[in-house]
Amino acid sequence: MQQLIEFLSQVDDQSLLEKRLRALLTPNEINEMLHRLQIFSLLEQGVPQRDIAKQLGVGIATVTRGSRALKELKKNES
Fold first, then answer.
1. Burial of residue 52, with CB atoms counted within 10 A of its CB: 0-12 exposed, 13-18 middle, 19 or more buried
2. pLDDT tens, 32-64?
3. How far separated are the first and last CA of the chain, in Å rounded?
4. Is 0.85 surpassed by the pTM of this model?
5. How far apart are CA 29 and CA 38, in angstroms?
6. What angle do CA 59, 45, 36 make, to 5 degrees?
7. What is the DSSP string of 13-75?
8. What letter would DSSP give residue 10?
9. Which of 3, 54, 65, 71 is least enclosed by beta carbons within 10 angstroms?
């Protein structure tokens, strides 16, 4: 993980950062990350999990995993 963080943090230009991410990730992986960010955002807005799943076209299990990940993230950041 440290190697990945160093690789991505070596650039301060968004265009170069995007190129590095596209070199590392497949289009599906990028879409999964974008869905996870959308899930985080909607959960923080108080949108019910079933509504999020329907809105984003993902399974409820995906939203539940996102919810657990967000809770863990918040716990570790405090």
1. buried
2. 999 999 999 999 999 999 999 999 999 999 999
3. 21
4. no
5. 14
6. 40
7. -HHHHHHHHHHHS-HHHHHHHHHHHHHHHHHHTT--HHHHHHHHT--HHHHHHHHHHHHHHHH
8. T
9. 3
